[in-house]
C-alpha cells in the first residue's frame, strides 16, 4: 500500500507528492485509523482544531502562524487559542493544509498521521509541521520552497509508484501541474504530470483510485488575483472555468471538461466519500453554481449544473448585481448533505443530496456578509425574495466579514466556520475584517431533517490576538475529517 498527501494549489501550477519507502516506521494512534467513511463517522468528538492565521495585508508585520484552538466544551480553555506556532518568515500567506497520511493508508502499519503539510500561497514555502509529538503544541519540522508560485492545498492520497508520497498542487502563472516531495526528507523531486501536460491554472484536486482518476480545478493567474479581484480579468482569460481529468496511474491528462460561463472559477472539488462512487460536486465561485461531475457509461467524464444561486440587484456596491460567490463546499461523511458558503451574500446553505441530480435546500443561516440591512449596500431586487439579513452578533460582538471556510464534525452535528478567504480579497471586500480580525463560529446541524442554527455561545475572536488582529482561514482536526480523508 502506498501513502500520499496532497497539497492543492490556489493559483495555477504545480503539485507535491511525498514518497516514503521505509516499512519499519512505527504506527501511532494519530495515524490514519479509519477503514471507511462510515467508520470515521463514528469517531470521537473533536477536541482541538488547527487554523493557519495570516498577517499579510493587515498592516501588521508579523509572521503567519498555526493556531491550535480548544473546542472541547468540558475544557477550561474552551473557545480559546491554546498554542501559536509562528513561521520563521514574513508574508507567507499560509493557506490550505493537509496530512502526510490519510485513511487510504489504513492497512499500512508503517504510516502514521504525524505531519501537517502547510503551504504558503505567496512565498511558495511549504512548512512541514510536527503535530504527532505534542498535538496541542505543534512544532516546525522542515521548510521547503519549490520553484513554483503559490502552493495552495494538501490532501492525503494513496500513491501509484509503490511508495508513500504527498501530492501538492501549487500555482504558477498559466501552468497548473503537480510536484513530488520525498516523504522522508520532504525534498522536491520533480513534477507528477508529464512534460507539456500542465493545465492553464490550478486550485484544488481530488482523486478516486477505484476509478483511476484525479480531478483538478482552476482559480486564476497570480498576477490577476494577488491584490484583489478585477472583473475585467475574467474577460481577459485570467481566470479558469474547467475541470481537468487525469489518469491516476499513468499521470496523463485525459480530458478538459469546460464548464462554460456558468462554471467560471471552479474552486473546491469533492468526490462522494463512498470509494465506489464515480461522482461528486464542484463549487463555481463567479456565477455561484454547483456542478455535479460523473463518469459516463462510455468511461469519460461529464458535468451538469445542479444548484444555482441567483445574483441580487444592488446599489452602493462595485457592480449593479452581486453574486453570492460560492467559496468553500464540503460533503458530510455519510454522503447525505452538501454544505457551502456564499461569501458575498453572507449565508451558509445545507442541501440534501440523497437524490444526487436534484439537491434540495434544507438549511440556511446568515452570518454577516455584504448585504446586512444596516450596511451601505441596498438590495433592489432579489429573485429569492429574501429580506436583507440582520447583522450577526455573538456575545456582543458584531461579526465582520462573512462565512467562508467550513469544517464539519465527524458525526455531522457541528459545522465550524471562519470568515477569511484570502487577504488580498479580504482587504477589498471586507476592510472591517482586516481592521478587526476574523472569527471562528459554530453552527448546530439537524442531521435528521436538515437545518442550521447558530450556536450563540461559541466564538473565537481572532481580533484579540497578542500581536494584533489576524485572518484565520482553514480548519483541520488532528484525527481526520471529511475534507482530508479518502478511502480505497
From TrEMBL:
Ranges annotated as spanning the membrane: none
Xref: InterPro entries: Se-bd
EC number from the UniProt entry: 1.8.3.4
Recorded metabolic or biological pathway in which this protein acts: Organosulfur degradation
Localisation: Nucleus; Cytoplasm, Cytosol; Membrane
A Pfam family of this chain: SBP56
Domain of life: Eukaryota
Functional summary from the UniProt entry: Catalyzes the oxidation of methanethiol, an organosulfur compound known to be produced in substantial amounts by gut bacteria. Selenium-binding protein which may be involved in the sensing of reactive xenobiotics in the cytoplasm. May be involved in intra-Golgi protein transport.
Protein name, UniProt field: Methanethiol oxidase
Organism, scientific name: Oreochromis niloticus (Nile tilapia)
Taxon lineage: Eukaryota, Metazoa, Chordata, Craniata, Vertebrata
Amino acid at each position: 500500500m502506498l501513502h500520499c498527501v496532497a497539497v492543492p494549489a490556489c493559483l495555477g501550477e504545480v503539485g507535491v507528492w511525498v514518497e516514503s519507502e521505509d516499512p519499519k516506521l512505527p504506527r501511532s494512534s494519530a495515524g490514519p485509523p479509519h477503514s471507511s467513511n462510515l467508520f470515521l463517522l463514528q469517531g470521537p468528538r473533536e477536541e482541538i482544531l488547527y487554523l493557519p492565521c495570516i498577517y499579510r495585508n493587515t498592516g501588521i508585520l508579523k509572521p503567519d502562524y498555526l493556531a491550535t484552538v480548544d473546542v472541547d466544551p468540558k475544557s477550561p480553555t474552551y473557545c480559546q487559542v491554546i498554542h501559536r506556532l509562528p513561521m520563521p518568515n514574513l508574508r507567507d500567506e499560509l493557506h490550505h493544509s493537509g496530512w502526510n497520511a490519510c485513511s487510504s493508508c489504513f492497512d499500512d502499519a508503517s504510516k502514521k498521521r504525524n505531519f501537517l503539510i502547510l503551504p504558503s500561497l505567496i512565498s511558495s514555502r511549504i512548512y512541514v509541521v510536527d503535530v504527532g509529538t505534542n498535538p496541542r503544541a505543534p512544532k516546525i519540522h522542515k521548510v521547503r520552497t519549490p520553484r513554483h508560485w503559490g502552493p495552495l492545498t494538501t490532501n492525503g492520497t494513496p500513491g501509484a509508484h509503490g511508495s508513500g508520497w504527498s501530492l501538492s498542487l501549487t500555482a504558477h502563472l498559466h501552468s497548473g501541474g503537480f510536484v513530488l516531495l520525498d516523504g522522508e526528507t520532504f525534498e522536491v523531486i520533480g513534477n507528477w504530470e508529464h512534460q507539456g501536460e500542465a493545465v492553464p491554472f490550478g486550485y484544488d484536486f481530488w482523486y478516486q483510485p477505484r476509478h483511476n482518476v484525479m480531478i483538478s480545478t482552476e482559480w486564476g493567474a497570480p498576477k490577476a488575483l494577488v491584490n484583489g479581484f478585477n472583473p475585467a480579468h475574467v474577460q481577459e482569460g485570467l481566470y479558469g472555468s474547467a475541470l481537468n481529468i487525469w489518469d491516476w496511474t499513468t499521470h496523463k491528462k485525459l480530458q478538459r471538461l469546460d464548464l462554460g460561463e456558468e462554471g467560471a472559477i471552479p474552486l473546491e472539488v469533492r468526490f462522494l466519500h463512498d470509494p465506489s462512487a464515480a461522482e461528486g460536486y464542484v463549487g463555481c465561485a463567479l456565477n455561484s453554481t454547483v456542478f455535479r461531475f460523473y463518469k459516463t457509461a462510455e468511461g469519460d467524464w461529464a458535468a451538469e449544473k445542479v444548484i444555482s444561486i441567483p445574483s441580487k440587484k444592488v446599489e452602493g456596491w462595485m457592480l449593479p448585481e452581486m453574486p453570492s460567490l460560492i467559496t468553500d463546499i464540503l460533503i458530510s461523511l455519510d454522503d447525505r448533505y452538501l454544505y457551502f458558503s456564499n461569501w458575498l451574500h453572507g449565508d451558509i446553505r445545507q442541501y440534501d443530496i440523497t437524490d444526487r441530480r436534484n439537491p434540495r435546500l434544507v438549511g440556511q443561516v446568515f452570518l454577516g456578509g455584504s448585504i446586512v440591512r444596516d450596511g451601505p449596500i441596498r438590495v433592489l431586487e432579489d429573485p429569492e425574495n429574501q429580506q436583507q439579513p440582520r447583522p450577526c452578533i455573538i456575545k456582543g460582538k458584531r461579526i465582520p466579514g462573512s462565512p467562508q471556510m467550513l469544517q464539519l464534525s465527524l458525526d455531522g452535528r457541528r459545522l465550524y466556520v471562519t470568515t477569511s478567504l484570502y487577504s488580498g480579497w479580504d482587504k477589498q471586500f471586507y476592510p472591517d475584517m482586516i481592521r478587526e480580525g476574523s472569527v471562528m463560529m459554530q453552527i448546530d446541524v439537524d442531521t435528521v431533517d436538515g437545518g442550521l442554527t447558530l450556536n450563540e455561545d461559541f466564538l473565537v475572536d481572532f481580533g484579540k490576538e497578542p500581536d494584533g488582529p489576524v485572518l484565520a482561514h482553514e480548519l483541520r482536526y488532528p484525527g481526520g475529517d471529511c475534507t482530508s480523508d479518502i478511502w480505497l
